[in-house]
Amino acid sequence: MASAMLNYFSQTGHDMYSAPFGDTIEGKARAWRWLAFLNADVHKAFGQLFRTPPWAEDETVKNAMQQAARAQIAGMLKQADDQLANHAWLGGEEISVADIYLYVILRWANGLSVDLSQMKHLNEVPETRGRRPRRARDLRPGGIAAVMAVPSRRAG
Known about the structure:
Blueprint: H1 2-12, H2 25-45, H3 47-50, H4 59-86, H5 97-111, H6 120-130, H7 133-138, H8 144-147
C-alpha cells in the first residue's frame, strides 16, 4: 500500500508531496518509522475485518475475531493519537506521506466500525486534513481514494 501511495504522488507531481518525508533528517526518520508501522502493522491488522479466515465459519467465532481485530487496531492507533497530541503531523511539524496514509486508514477504521471515539487527536484528522484543497481533488473518483480504497471482499 505504501509503495502505491509513493508511486501515485511521484506520478501526479503534487508540489506538496515533493518532500513526502519532511525536510529535516529527524522528520524523515519519524515519517519513515510511522509509514512502516502503518503499513506493516496497522494495515495487516485490518485483514481480519476485510476477510475472516475460511476456517472460522461459526458466526460467534467470526464476531469474536473481528472484535479482537478492532481492539488491536484501536490500540495501535492510540500511538498515533498520542503523537498528534504533541505534534501537528506524525513526523513532527511537516506533513508527510505517513499522514496521508493515516488519513486513509482512519477512513477504513470509520467504515469498519473501529471505535476511536476516545482518541481526540485522531478524530480531528479527517476533519482538518480532509478540508485541504488538494485533498478534495485527490479524493475525487479516480484520485488517490481509488488507489487506497478498502479492498472488496472476494468470494471463496
